[in-house]
Amino acid sequence: MHLQNSHRFTGVVAVLGMVLAASFVPTAKADEVHVAASYSAEHLNGLRAGFRWTDGPSIVPKSWLTAIGNPRVHWEAAVNTLVNSRNSSERINALSFSPVLQWALAPRLFLEAGIGVSLFDETRISDRELAISFQFEDRIGISWELDTISGSRLSFGYAHYSQADIQRPNDGLDLWVLSWHQPF
């Protein structure tokens, strides 16, 4: 019963976290949803769902963006869950919020990168010890626009979670991520 209540509590925290993250981008409306599946060599499988905004506030001077190739800046909030594939009752959930930079490499092909923050509901999964709930989320990936009319994209990338040795141990998590993005 305790595990069931823990997951119910996690769901409530996830919804509240998404609302809180959205409040940091008050003038923005979500203009894209995404779902993702992830895999880790540490026997973790995951799911992710989130929103992206493209009209949020700028946090760096325009000249800085110009210096790095004028990427399009997105804001993203997501809910993540990871399950130990060797013990399916072992699960960890997180709320993530991140700016994502997107560079056009060719028509319909994009490079995406971001560094954001995540808040996990547990600090251990499988043989990975995170020490604290707060983690940085670093990611990089390639995104391909499947349809120019709908703007739907498929992306493949790498994500890393760690807390920059704020506290030890800092095993971190490394994931390969396949995502479907759908603008609306």
UniProtKB/TrEMBL annotation:
Protein name (Swiss-Prot/TrEMBL): Acyloxyacyl hydrolase
Pfam family, one: PagL
Phylogenetic classification of the source organism: Bacteria, Pseudomonadati, Pseudomonadota, Gammaproteobacteria, Alteromonadales
Gene Ontology molecular function terms on file: hydrolase activity
Organism: Pseudidiomarina donghaiensis
Signal peptide interval: 1-30
Cross-referenced InterPro entries: Lipid-A_deacylase-rel
Keyword annotations from UniProtKB, A to Z: Hydrolase, Signal
